[in-house]
Design goal:
Layout: H1 3-13, H2 24-38, H3 46-51, H4 57-84, H5 87-107, H6 111-125, H7 128-139, H8 143-175, H9 178-198, H10 208-219, H11 222-251, H12 256-285, H13 291-310, H14 314-342, H15 348-376, H16 378-395, H17 397-404
Helix pairs in contact: 2-7, 2-8, 2-9, 4-5, 4-6, 4-7, 4-15, 5-6, 5-7, 5-9, 7-15, 8-12, 8-14, 11-13, 11-14, 11-15, 11-16, 11-17, 12-14, 13-14, 13-16, 15-16
């Protein structure tokens, strides 16, 4: 047996790395990610805050979509800045802006002012995502270890998001949404402090001409386009768990407390399934690009939101959330693995930002799609649209499978 084969076999069979083997900066990023997600009340409860202003469903869905517009732009800009200016500077700046702008959403009453603040809040709300992805890819060399860290990263995100939904749902009725949004702002300030204290100083960035060349190369990479489009279709369903579900439940006359119970079901499913799926997915990542796993996750997500579209009770929505969880666990690990195979080392932040924009676009499309479907055909049309999105995401993996076997990137034009 060759030395490389022995090394690979040992890597596959080795136990999970101890926390001491993970760089301090990565641990700080994971802790910060958990912090801002555990206190990430702003977006999932924004529709309830807007409901207090007696806005129409159409206006509310457009404001939620405006949040997604900001999210989309923020992913692209933060990913680019992470490569050019530096991950530490970009993260500190974004989290500082979030700490200042999020409280505005708790107090503004003017619709135009809410729109503007929502776009800015969306731009910085998920800013850590491309920075953390690029840092893991840059500092962790083994593919299995990257997948394992990404798996537990998303475990922390899912658990904290579920706790956010449950705690927020339980507290919103007694203390209101305003203190929850303020808590989110304080958490963002805390993440900025963590980044300032524990992230390494940024290195000098390349010339602007080099940056523009990398951007052109990324936008011309067919593999990145296919992965992006497939992710968008699947993540429209995944985003439904926290941005379409409140609209569906509100339409059925269910309260924020009912939404909190669905997030408790989410928490239980994440805690149960992540310890089972993450090690298995990590081993799969070490053997081949996770194309089949990605396709399966898209189908699972489509099925979960199909059940949500047909549900009308808290129990029904809780069942839909439980069905969504395995698809969400798989897709983030699989997409991260595929992105590692596609992205060049010098543009990891850019590629992560472009991919991260798919979740932002999903946040735009999910409430718009749900609002349109509810107006035109009710829950049944919502279910059909969700199933179609899941099928589309799985189908787009077919051409990507062929292109992933080619080492050089396939460029457009």
């Amino acid at each position: 047996m060759s030395v490389a084969a022995v090394r690979d076999e040992a890597a596959i069979s080795a136990p999970s790395p101890s926390p001491r083997r993970v760089p301090t900066s990565i641990r700080a990023l994971l802790c910060g990610t958990f912090l801002v997600r555990a206190a990430g009340f702003t977006y999932p409860f924004l529709s309830y805050r807007l409901d207090q202003l007696d806005l129409s469903t159409n206006v509310v869905s457009r404001i939620l979509a405006a949040f997604g517009v900001g999210w989309f732009v923020g992913q692209l800009v933060c990913g680019w800045l992470a490569d050019r200016v530096g991950r530490r500077t970009t993260l500190i700046g974004a989290m500082s802006v979030a700490a200042m702008v999020l409280p505005l959403l708790a107090h503004l009453a003017s619709t135009p002012a809410i729109f503007i603040s929502t776009v800015i809040a969306g731009a910085v709300y998920d800013a850590p995502r491309p920075i953390v992805s690029a840092s893991i890819a840059a500092l962790i060399s083994a593919e299995e270890e990257r997948a394992r860290i990404n798996g537990w990263r998303h475990f922390a995100v899912n658990v904290s998001a579920a706790l956010t939904g449950f705690a927020g749902g339980m507290l919103a009725g007694s203390i209101g949404v305003t203190p929850l949004i303020w808590t989110n702002a304080v958490a963002c300030a805390g993440f900025a402090l963590l980044a300032w204290r524990y992230l390494d100083a940024d290195q000098p960035h390349p010339r602007i001409a080099t940056a523009r060349a990398e951007y052109r190369a990324a936008l011309g990479d067919v593999r990145l386009w296919l992965l992006t489009l497939a992710s968008l279709a699947a993540l429209v369903c995944a985003a439904g768990m926290f941005c379409a579900l409140p609209l569906l439940m509100t339409d059925d006359g269910l309260s924020a407390t009912a939404y909190g119970w669905t997030q408790l079901a989410n928490f239980a499913a994440v805690v149960t399934l992540s310890p089972v799926l993450t090690p298995w997915l990590s081993r799969r990542a070490a053997t081949a690009p996770m194309l089949a796993e990605f396709a399966a996750s898209s189908l699972i997500l489509g099925a979960g939101m199909t059940v949500a579209g047909l549900a009308s009770t808290t129990i029904g929505y809780s069942l839909a959330v439980v069905l969504l969880v395995p698809g969400e666990i798989i897709i983030f690990i699989a997409a991260g693995n595929l992105l590692d195979h596609v992205a060049p080392a010098e543009a990891r932040g850019l590629y992560a930002g472009i991919w991260g924009s798919t979740l932002a676009l999903a946040v735009i499309l999910a409430p718009l799609l749900t609002g349109w479907a509810l107006d035109q055909g009710g829950g049944l049309l919502t279910a059909v649209a969700s199933l179609a999105a899941g099928l589309l995401g799985a189908t787009l993996i077919l051409p990507l499978t062929g292109l992933m076997r080619r080492q050089p990137p396939v460029l457009l034009g």
